[in-house]
Automatic annotation (TrEMBL):
It comes from the Bacteria. InterPro entries: CTDL_fold, Sulfatase_Mod_Factor_Kinase, SUMF_dom, SUMF_sf. Signal peptide: none annotated. This is Formylglycine-generating enzyme required for sulfatase activity. It comes from Duganella violaceipulchra. Residues 26-113 form the Sulfatase-modifying factor enzyme-like domain. PANTHER family: FORMYLGLYCINE-GENERATING ENZYME, SULFATASE MODIFYING FACTOR 1, 2. Pfam families: FGE-sulfatase.
Amino acid sequence: MVIVPAGSIAMRDDRTANGPHYGNLDDIAWYRENSGGRSCVVGLKQPNLWGLHDMLGNVWEWCVDQYDPEVYGLYRVFRGGGWSDAERGCLATNRRRSHPTYAIDDLGFRLVRSRA
């Protein structure tokens, strides 16, 4: 399993000139305007330049990073926006935090595997 640090280069795609997204949001992410009010099948949208799908939208991604351990203790970071968020919420730079026991229907994690 690959652990992707919050805000890592895998989430961003700085080699394009599309502002905060690595492409047109409708082409790369499930969010409030196109999700139908639920999480969607992974891999149906265009991948980033590293071949990773759904790095923005669909579900917020729990990250290994702690938010600010001195202030928030065990709170962890999640990034990327979810299916119920407006377009402005689907950014790799958009960071939220909560206790690791927090659960909601548009929050999860991503698994990455290589093609064999």
